[in-house]
């Protein structure tokens, strides 16, 4: 499972910039395809909904490279399927551990863009001497292959590291996180912070901060009163 998913990740990573095919790069679409591939639609779409909500605020504008949603989503989906997890609390650990891959994917894309600068000079040489230089089709094909290979290899190494880490944790602590009373609704509510951040309204941030503070206060107040009584 871990080996086969690197092909799907490398393929979907091309949808970000190399192949413009609309929303196929979004977590919801990735989760749907993973559900078709594995047959587990429910868990796949639940994970995809979390990532879709969490990064709702970050969009590719100008030179900004957004987090690589495909990397984090595929990592969470692949590891969840590999370990056969169903409890939201255990999957929560997988989701949080997969989030750094979104940053890693962005770094890889930045390095690939730096390498593509040389293609501009090659394109100018081709325009001046079409018979002695590589044409646009060759440059585009090389760029696609480079992106596909770099994305696949980087993702494969990263997910293997996460796989071995979780194997060790689950073998040492079989009930890790499963005792936490958490549902998908809790995770989705936490993920909606991404949509709130997209409002760009300071008053909304203030209301959020006050709400979190009050919730934490009453959450601690209950056990304190019970202890005194």
Description:
With 229 residues, the protein is mostly helical. It has helices at residues 2-13, 27-38, 41-54, 69-83, 88-98, 100-115, 117-128, 136-172, 184-191, 193-197, 202-228. α2 (27-38) packs parallel to α4, α3 (41-54) packs antiparallel against α4 and α4 (69-83) packs across α6. The longest helix has 37 residues, at 136-172. The radius of gyration is 22 Å and the shape is globular. The termini are far apart.
List keywords for this structure.
single chain, 229 residues, mainly alpha, 2 domains, 11 helices, 0% strand
The proportion of residues in beta strands is under 5%
Q: Write down the domain tally.
A: 2
Overall form: globular
Annotation field: number of helices: 11
Mean pLDDT: 77
- Which structural class fits the helix and strand makeup? mainly alpha
The overall strand count is 0
Give the low-pLDDT segments: none
Based on CA atoms alone, the radius of gyration comes out at: 22 Å
Instruction: Give helix % range.
Output: over 70%
Question: What's the short story on this structure?
Answer:
This protein has 11 helices and no strands.
